Amino acid sequence: MTTEKGPSAERDRWLKRIEAEKKAHEVYRRQAKEAERSYYDRSRMTGEALTENLQLVPLFWSSTNVLHAALFSRMPRPDVRKRNTDVMDGVAKEISLMTERAVTFVQDTTGYDNDAHQSVNDFLVCALGQGKIEMDVETAEVPVINPIDGQPIVLNGEPLTQTKVVSRTLRQRYVHWKNYHWEPTTSWDQVTWMSYDHWMSREELEKQFDIKLPEKANGSGGGNSPLKADKYEPQFCVHEIWDKTRREVVLICDAYDDVIETREDPLGLKDFFPSPRPMLANVEGEEVIPKPDFTFIRDMLKLVNLYAKRIRELTGQIKDWGYYDSSFPELAKVNQATDGTFFPVAGIVERMGLAGSKAGNVVYSQDNSNKVQVIMNLIDQFERQKALLWETIGISDITRGQTNPSETASAQRIKDQWANVRLAPKLNTISQFFRDCFRIMAEIISEKFEPEQIFQMTGVQVTPEMEQVMQDDFLRTYAIDVETDSTIAQDDNLEREQRNETSKVIGDMLQSLVPAINAGQLPADIAKALMLFTVRTTKFGSEFEDAINQLPDTMQQLQQMQQQVQQGQMQAQQLEQQLQEAQTQLQKVNQSKEQRENIETQAGAQEKAASSARQQADALETMQRVQMGHVLPLAR
Predict the structure, then answer these.
(1) How far is 219 from 225, CA to CA, in rounded Å?
(2) Nearest to 254 by CA among 19, 82, 42
(3) Residues 147-186: tens digit of each pLDDT
(4) What is the pTM of this model?
(5) How far apart are alpha carbons 487 and 207 in whole angstroms?
């Protein structure tokens, strides 16, 4: 695409929309900029003097970090289950297992943690946290195979090739609040477009989109971009606009006279946008405009820093200094003396008499008691203001890791409980945001990823029945429910107690229900419903649902199961009898074998005895012949 075309009406239309959006959200962006400046202490970074803007106590930074740790101390994990747990659906179970493993694989193989923390930090500091799900496609040119002979098709001496998808990769990318724009509306459901800003150098922009910028272009804003990199090289802002009405993506730049590129619905999502509703704080009912918490505590922070500044100044004024009568030069080094040191003073009796016999009349020290009292009062006000600030934010001393040793355990538990109540709205906002991100990932994986790659990622083989459900938004949503687990820190002792509680509940129910079922006093389906109703109220009860669902629902099914158990027991008894008979026969065979071996041993011994007897008989016969003269010994 070249610049020979005239200015594009489409490009101008979108630039006007973005400018109108900036004006509509101007107040919020000014508040967010001020909050971000205070959080990062930009005054100190720019080397400003000790003014009202310079923070001696970075309380907003510390309180935000405490909130961040309390709300988002661990990465959320997808929790995908069958939507209807009481329905025995193997396809839905396999899809839920595949989806959970695939989304977890995306988390583990991308820079998910850093992007997620940055989004949450923007939410806590600037009241808006956003992320964007991106998919990269790796393709390769492969030869077209003739289905008849299995050989590549050759056309004009060259092999015919086709583009084939080798792999697809997903990631959740962090979007800074300054680079995110959304249509001003009264409800988020009415938002029809959103835009992401990408800052690029001239070389990057021209190379990536194969365009030529005008030579006079000096970056977006004429060198006044918010990026520090603009001081090194002019940066150009590319607006990536997602238009839900037309289901297309438009890329424009104010330094380029035409639309850079238009793409047709790249992801094919049901709700079109690659981002969920952002994490928004303090949204008014009339418009979707957030408001940072900093605006509510700004004056408190200024007062805390004012107290800190006054304490610092007065502390610098308090010094241990004084003066003495110059007629006593020996006192010049008094302050440098150690304990028990005496200084010789000539004529001290007469000279002290002239001074009224009091050392205080010779040496005078500065009285700082008034300033010390003022500092103590300021410290008291400083601590009171800090406590009021923590209370306003909703962070208890338990959350900050501080406690009063005199407090009881019940009092501390109540504080922790109410702290969680205060933090619940923010926690729910964070959890819903990541849940929606997981759902977008699940939709892309189900509809765009090839079964071979899904198998490599999850170890689950995608069957035609599964693929049919995965490709349909309605069937997939009906089959599975994508949620997220907690983002707060886990208490190992609490988790152990919850597991023990679940085990105890199930054990007690079995002890009370099984005898009633066997006695015919309680129908099996009612007992099963009671068990499901009870275990679903526990933390880990869902892990037992599949096993309970497989239990029989009626007495007839129970009797059939009992008959099957009895048949199995009878078969086991028959097998045990057959095994005993086989063991008896084996013992008989072994006994016969032992008898045969004994007989052979006895025969061998007898044969050896007979041979020995024959040898002895031959020796006696020879001796008899020698004695009778029949055999003469050989002469030497």
Answers:
(1) 8
(2) 19
(3) 787 788 887 778 888 888 888 999 999 999 999 999 999 9
(4) 0.71
(5) 41
